[in-house]
Amino acid sequence: MNHTKGPWLFEKYGENQFKIDGAEPICTLNSMTFQSEANARLICSAPEMLEVIKSYLDLSKQMKETQDQDEKRHILDSMIHLKRRMEKIVEETKETPK
């Protein structure tokens, strides 16, 4: 089974209520907690996080298989880029201060 392709977007439609859509509706989130927006952002980031994780795993496999030091440096640079991308995604999931 495959998930709905990203990007996913969220829309606030009420107090602590969010609709999350991609190419088709994904879900609605109704929460009475102050983390509601952060939770919606986290759900929306799932496809991008999955893409980063899969890329990282592919690079990790390549790193184990290569003996070439230049290729290892290139792979390491790519892994560092993916780490920064994941950090940015995580930062973007945090609820913005009111």
Fold and architecture overview:
The protein folds into two domains: 44 residues, no CATH class; 47 residues. It starts with 8 loop residues before the first strand and ends in a 5-residue tail after the last helix. It has a three-stranded antiparallel β-sheet, with helices on one face. The chain is of the alpha+beta class and 98 residues long.
List the helices and strands and how they pair.
Layout: E1 9-14, E2 17-21, E3 25-30, H1 36-44, H2 46-65, H3 69-93
Antiparallel strand pairs: 1-2, 2-3
What brief labels describe this structure?
98 residues, 55% helix, 17% strand, alpha+beta, 3 strands
Mean pLDDT across the residues is: 89
Q: Structural class given helices, strands, pairing?
A: alpha+beta
Write out the strand line-up for the largest beta sheet, numbering strands in chain order.
Answer: 1-2-3
Whole-number count of domains? 2
Shape: elongated
* Uncertain residue ranges: none
Kindly report the oligomeric state of this protein: single chain
Portion in strands = 15-25%
The rounded distance between the terminal residues' Cα atoms is 39 Å
Helix content: 55-70%
Radius of gyration: 17 Å
Q: Number of helix segments? A: 3
In total, the number of strands is 3
| Largest beta-sheet details | 3 strands, antiparallel
What is the H/E order? EEEHHH
